[in-house]
Design a protein that fits this description.
Helix content: 25-40%
Largest sheet: 6 strands, antiparallel
Mean pLDDT: 78
Strand content: 15-25%
Low-confidence stretches: 1-44, 362-391
Structural class: alpha+beta
Number of strands: 13
Number of helices: 9
């Protein structure tokens, strides 16, 4: 759906934030904290998610050391001051007026391969971010190896080099913690963006506005698939299941007049999440990013998810001698996901996992709440090409 093209026109979002914890102990950042964390010591106080004392350095003897080190290096690279996203991030954070207990999660684009967007209903993406942030903290506590004594290096010079390396390591690691800003960084490094473009408008993707009800409506897929792509997919690839997302929310007509045309040109979904005192996140509201420098913030009551089964039949046209194909779409497993409910995942060292402990697939979804309308539907709707799929 043109992820890369859209992301060049949409400024991206904020990742420098502070965190909450179950206890009431606050940690006041020092100037040295900039070595490992991205907050302004003069502006914030933060409550810990994982303290420095709770973790040990990465164990080089452990079989998963290289993988954990690789994960940590990705986050370390992402946090470099030269990262071009950071200035844009701060601008959007100021415009959205995010608070210390809030993060914004939009993910990252990938121009090399097609990958699904994060399923916002699941907890696995939260657990993965927790693991990544903790591995980064553990890597900061891991003493880097220095080269052996050189042929023309005296013992005193070698000892001095060792001492300097120890001092640098202490400076880098002594104030390092995991706070909500680091969880936000890890989330955005791990995920993939949700993008809607009016140019892709079809039965799967659409953004529209109802002036009478002052409602904005959005529809998209978790995977980067279009109706055009389905129509050009080989017959032996069917049946296949697509995963759809629908959102509708109030948008004042005056705001729509100013910004809806930009939203139609291309919109990136950004999820604003809030952390409670039990270190659990909940989805609070959604920001829509477009070419307009001011984001549109909507507060839908729920997100609607459904599975779309795509089936294709093949018949032989005796008159022409050609095969003819007919595509059928049926909607299944309709669920609504309520906003502002806490995910059943608690951040912290208690739920940290080594690589071999991680599931291969997403798990532990937030319990879906079926609406009265959905409960009344017992038979999946079967649609032929050309019919409308969603309300």
């Amino acid at each position: 759906m043109g992820h890369v093209q859209l992301l060049t026109t949409c400024l991206i979002l904020q990742m420098g934030l502070v965190a909450c914890n179950q206890n009431t102990t606050t940690y006041t950042p020092s100037e040295k904290d900039s070595l490992s964390r991205r907050i302004d010591p003069a502006q914030y106080q933060t409550m810990l998610i994982v303290s420095n004392e709770q973790v040990t350095p990465l164990d080089e003897e452990y079989e998963h050391f290289n993988f954990q080190q690789f994960e940590a290096s990705l986050l370390a690279e992402y946090l470099q001051p030269t990262n071009s996203i950071r200035a844009q991030v701060q601008q959007y954070r100021q415009k959205l007026g995010l608070k210390a207990d809030e993060i914004i999660f939009f993910g990252k684009g990938d121009s090399n391969e097609e990958k699904p967007s994060i399923d916002i209903r699941q907890t696995e993406f939260l657990a993965t971010a927790n693991d990544l942030a903790i591995n980064h903290l553990r890597s900061l506590k891991t003493q880097a190896m220095i080269s052996e004594q050189g042929q023309y290096e005296t013992s005193a010079e070698y000892a001095q080099r060792q001492a300097q390396a120890n001092v640098q390591h202490q400076q880098r690691s002594s104030h390092a913690i995991v706070d909500l800003s680091r969880i936000e960084d890890a989330l955005n490094l791990s995920g993939y963006v949700w993008v809607l473009k009016q140019a892709d408008s079809d039965r799967f993707h659409e953004i529209s506005y109802d002036a009478d009800q002052e409602m904005i409506r959005l529809r998209t897929l978790i995977t980067d698939t279009s109706e055009h792509g389905i129509n050009h997919t080989a017959f032996d690839k069917f049946p296949q299941t697509l995963h759809a997302l629908e959102i509708q929310a109030h948008l004042p007509i005056e705001q729509a007049k100013k910004q809806f045309d930009d939203l139609k040109s291309g919109t990136t979904l950004a999820f604003i999440m809030r952390m409670d005192q039990n270190k659990r996140l909940s989805l609070d509201r959604i920001a829509l990013l477009s070419r307009n420098p001011n984001p549109v913030v909507i507060e839908p009551k729920e997100l609607k998810f459904s599975d779309i089964l795509v089936e294709v039949t093949k018949t032989r046209n005796e008159e022409t001698g050609h095969d003819e194909y007919e595509t059928f779409y049926s909607t299944h497993n309709e669920q609504v996901f309520k906003l502002k409910q806490a995910y059943p995942f608690q951040f912290g060292i208690e739920n940290y996992r080594l690589p071999h402990m991680r599931p291969r697939q997403n798990s532990t979804p937030v319990q879906p709440i079926l609406s009265d309308e959905l409960l009344s539907r017992h038979v999946p709707t079967r649609l032929q090409r050309g019919q409308s799929l969603c309300v």
